[in-house]
């Protein structure tokens, strides 16, 4: 990832170009705090149909083009040149055999240049973003979890000191393509997902056993959805979940929402209180993954951070 630029004096833009969702943040820093001009999330499903083939499909490439052209329009409203938007590609880009031609095509069409980062770089940026949210306490052991479409990042920190980080290529779209061929997901397929996670996440399981994290901090995406659903089932509508950087989710609330979600179709989930439409397809496998991690911990507290990679990138580039 390219280094820090000069101190922010006006609107700046960063973009997180994920496997499932493209996200744009236009903001500036005032007295060290993020002042948001625009947050935009677009479902692109860039990894759709191509995860096992390690190739970005033509229809997905065209969806990416449309999303970035829309971002370009937003950038122009804030008088930001597309080439000045720091856009990072994550799991689907770093694993695609056709990464270079796709990136070249998108730059030619939109003027936005994409930098592909490693899973380790992604984890560091996520950590930097979460630190700014208030979800990490000074005197507790935390396990930070960010569930993307292609990869999942875990970070362990003692207080605000990062001790361990690892990116696993087991994101929500990958789990759907492997195990959720039909809806609702079957009991058999849930067991297959759990067996797969047991195998793939062995380093994480060992870390949890050794370090005993007390607080699970979930980032954006699926966790934002769970928070919106928590409020929705209590008859409260959140106009903008990202208006607050940090929430708490009780184990009881998580268990209630898990039971509501597991035996449902996407159509049914779209009608649920608080459901974020963009997350309706992936929320079931994400919930199974979250529950797997919770079961490996000892009655953890759950914090959620609406700040994640894009905020970490913003503070890394434009902070004092």
Main features:
320 residues, alpha/beta, Nucleotidyltransferase, domain 5, 2 domains, six-stranded mixed β-sheet, five-stranded mixed β-sheet, 11 strands, 42% helix, 22% strand, globular
Can you walk through the features of this model?
42% of the residues lie in helices and 22% in strands. Strands 8-7-6-9-11-10 form a six-stranded mixed beta sheet, with helices on both faces. Strands 3-2-1-4-5 form a five-stranded mixed beta sheet, with helices on both faces. The protein has 320 residues and is of the alpha/beta class. It has two domains: 12-117, Nucleotidyltransferase, domain 5 (2-Layer Sandwich); 134-309, Exopolyphosphatase. Domain 2 (Nucleotidyltransferase, domain 5, 2-Layer Sandwich). It contains twelve helices and eleven strands. Strand 7 (152-158) and strand 8 (161-168) form a beta hairpin. The protein starts with 11 loop residues before the first strand and ends with a helix. It is globular.
Give the low-confidence spans: none
Structural class: alpha/beta
Strands ordered across the widest β-sheet = 8-7-6-9-11-10
First-to-last CA distance: 18 Å
- Oligomeric description of these chains: single chain
Radius of gyration: 19 Å
- Kindly give the count of domains: 2
Q: Count of DSSP helices?
A: 12
- Determine the mean pLDDT: 95
By CATH, the topology of the largest domain is Nucleotidyltransferase, domain 5
Helix content: 40-55%
Largest sheet: 6 strands, mixed
- Which superfamily, in CATH terms, is the homologous superfamily of the largest domain? Exopolyphosphatase. Domain 2
